[in-house]
C-alpha cells in the first residue's frame, strides 16, 4: 500500500513538472489552455524555434505581432491564426509556421 502511494505521488509530481504528458493534451484535437507551452518553428528551420507560454488571459506575446490569443484553439488553428496575422499585417507575403506543444 505504501509503495502504491509513493508511485502515485511520483506520477503526480512528474505530471505537474511536465515530465509525463497528459493524454488529453497530446491529442492533436486538444485545445490550448492558459499555462500551456507551445513551440513555434518558422519555416521548419532547425534551431530557430521559440517557446511561448500561454498567459492567464489566453495570449502569447509574439515578435512584431504583440499579443495573440491562442487559448481555445487546436494546434492547427493556432498555426493558421499566426500565419494569417503575419500576412495581414504585411510582415510576410507567405509564411509557414509549425506550432507544437513543448516537450
Distance between the termini: 32 Å
CATH superfamily of the largest domain: wza like domain
- Beta fraction: 15-25%
The secondary-structure element order is HHEEEEHE
Major beta sheet, strand line-up:
2-1-5
* Shape assignment: globular
Biggest sheet: strands, sense, closure? 3 strands, antiparallel
Mean pLDDT: 79
Structural class: alpha+beta
Name the CATH class of the largest domain.
Answer: Alpha Beta
From the 3D structure, determine the CATH topology of the largest domain. Answer: wza like fold
Précis, in short:
This protein is an alpha+beta fold.
Secondary structure elements and their pairing?
Elements: H1 2-17, H2 23-26, E1 37-42, E2 50-53, E3 59-62, E4 66-69, H3 75-88, E5 97-101
Antiparallel strand pairs: 1-2, 1-5, 3-4
How would you sum up this structure, described in words?
The chain is α+β, with helices and mostly antiparallel strands and 103 residues long. The protein has 2 domains: 26 residues; 71 residues, wza like fold (2-Layer Sandwich). The chain is built from 3 helices and 5 strands; from the N terminus they run H-H-E-E-E-E-H-E. The strands form 2 sheets. Strands 2-1-5 form a 3-stranded antiparallel beta sheet, covered by helices on one side. Strands 3-4 form a two-stranded antiparallel ribbon. The longest helix is centred in the first third of the chain and has 16 residues.
Amino acid at each position: 500500500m505504501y509503495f502504491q502511494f509513493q508511485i502515485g505521488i511520483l506520477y503526480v509530481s512528474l505530471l505537474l513538472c511536465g515530465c509525463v504528458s497528459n493524454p488529453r493534451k497530446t491529442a492533436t484535437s486538444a485545445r490550448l489552455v492558459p499555462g500551456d507551452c507551445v513551440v513555434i518553428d518558422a519555416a521548419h528551420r532547425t534551431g530557430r524555434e521559440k517557446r511561448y507560454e500561454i498567459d492567464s488571459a489566453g495570449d502569447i506575446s509574439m515578435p512584431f505581432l504583440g499579443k495573440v490569443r491562442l487559448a481555445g484553439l487546436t494546434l492547427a488553428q493556432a498555426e493558421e491564426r499566426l500565419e494569417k496575422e503575419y500576412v495581414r499585417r504585411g510582415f510576410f507575403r507567405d509564411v509557414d509556421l509549425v506550432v507544437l506543444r513543448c516537450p
